[in-house]
Amino acid sequence: MTSTANYTRIFDSIAAVPSLAPEWRARAMARLNSLTKPLESLGRLEEIAARLVEILEEEHPQCSRKIIFTLAADHGVTEEGVSAYPKAVTRQMVLNFLSGGAAINVLSRHCGVEMVIVDIGVESEFGDVAGLVKAKVRPGTRNFTRGPAMTESELHLALAVGLDLAAIAKKKGYTLVGTGEMGIGNTTAASAITAVLTGRSAAEVTGRGAGLDDQGLKNKIAVIERALAANNPDPAKPLDVLRQVGGLEIAGLTGLMIGCACRRIPVVVDGFISTAAAAVACALQPKVRSFLFAGHKSSEPGHLALLNFLGAPPLLDLEMRLGEGTGAALAMSIIEAAVKLFNEMATFSSAGVSEAVG
Amino acid sequence: MTSTANYTRIFDSIAAVPSLAPEWRARAMARLNSLTKPLESLGRLEEIAARLVEILEEEHPQCSRKIIFTLAADHGVTEEGVSAYPKAVTRQMVLNFLSGGAAINVLSRHCGVEMVIVDIGVESEFGDVAGLVKAKVRPGTRNFTRGPAMTESELHLALAVGLDLAAIAKKKGYTLVGTGEMGIGNTTAASAITAVLTGRSAAEVTGRGAGLDDQGLKNKIAVIERALAANNPDPAKPLDVLRQVGGLEIAGLTGLMIGCACRRIPVVVDGFISTAAAAVACALQPKVRSFLFAGHKSSEPGHLALLNFLGAPPLLDLEMRLGEGTGAALAMSIIEAAVKLFNEMATFSSAGVSEAVG
User: Cα B299–B301–B305 angle (5° rounding)?
Assistant: First the structure.
């Protein structure tokens, strides 16, 4: 497709995101209050179940067909020494995902989640490897300290890849989507996006990523400051922010979230990078927020700023900072548990249990 | 067994709890640091896996055979109007557990956990019901505003029931034990224990339980104050505290934790009531602490005080306050995930992934 066609499609998808209807929440609450437990004693699990009812508009929502899309891409800004790992690790980790040895593989198996690995912009070619979705927009972004990370048409193509993945998820009957990513250098892009959208300084929202030392962190902050000065991104123009200081996997995830929202597929957002994509998606279309669950709180300092920006309390806080979709996988199991409680618990009347006195 | 025999057995079990050997932690850390992930990026999951290695003293610990013991008992103090639910609900909920309709049934199925329901002190007789472990010490505790909840021999018998359950878990090959309970009135007992062991006032550590209103909460605090005045429990004598203001299910759980610790079975402690039992176990034998994982933080206000007393950060905080073992079930799945990551992830060298630079 041409860039114009992609742009139109993105625009149409943004416009197609529905609002949730409050009558479905009321129906969900009535059932929750009839189940054999003290009122509201399942805490956040009740809110999750109610939201699934609202999203799916079903008396008995299902979310057991779970899939994580892990999008991989490289970042030109790694030239500036912003990561503790060499760029080659993006490719190496993609191969590790494909052979089942990475953390996300273990957690996906444990949580009953299927996994799709997408090359949306890894620098090197993979050739003929089984199981990889090939959707490379370009071999890594440009170094955004010297100008935009992407052209407009590259951005549109990356967003369209995400929309395509959402369409595939819907067609194949997945009922819960998780986001994941791999890209050496991508906490630098996520920190830059976070600084712009939340109005905070680079120093406030930048962390050690995969393991920078003090000197490395200082350099990373300076690199982000230079990128912001070179591009001067405008928080009122989220697509420009994404194009200027984002990444191909981040743009793909933004497209995925918009695509899922307009198809009423709930999305579990993983950590810092995924939440940067979510922040762009919600800046473009606030209605997307209703379809998102924040999987966990990463120990990257910018993540909390983004979660607050989104008003999305994380489900888990296990001090993880790995990405790949690892936080999403664990949270998807919690969400599935909440929905099973909603569907499977006995009611006070069916179980013959007395209700509260007075 | 006679009370003296039980007491000897309890005393012997307390003495038999082993200390963890630091060399196993060092071995665990070496493997964790060889796995394909940035150093320490799995956060608390790494600490969990390392502790399992220390507890089991195995290079590849296993914890997939999971069981929750849910102990049910009644409380004489319900005469004082301390619960929003009638006492009959303890029995009704036991029947709900046995027919599979309670929250803990749904979560146990979801998390692959087996469940055992134990009548350690429900007021009424169950007759011939399938699946219930009958270990009733007495039909509910005495009203502890007028004197001790139990006699010494009843306390020893309840502790011995817990020791027996640990022995069964070991014999049947379970590798991870979760605690659960059901007992209308048992937050009152747990709050009383918490006040004594942490040195806080009843008002600080008492909450609404299953759903008291303001007047009910005020009465509950006054009841606990009367119980403490009537029994004058000494925090330096944890068994006396348990006997005076505890409950039969709480004593059973204390015994279960001690029994598991002396057999090197890791235990996932559920919410407020279970943590009160854990606090007594650790007051009796501080080494028990190494074998415990705090499953979640309940929204009952006394729970945080107990977790701090134990120095046990909770794994989950989903604002649940249901008991039954519900928080333990979800946390057991997280612990299993941590151990699978430890065992199943590729290493940098096996996957051909570059390590950090410098």
Answer: 115
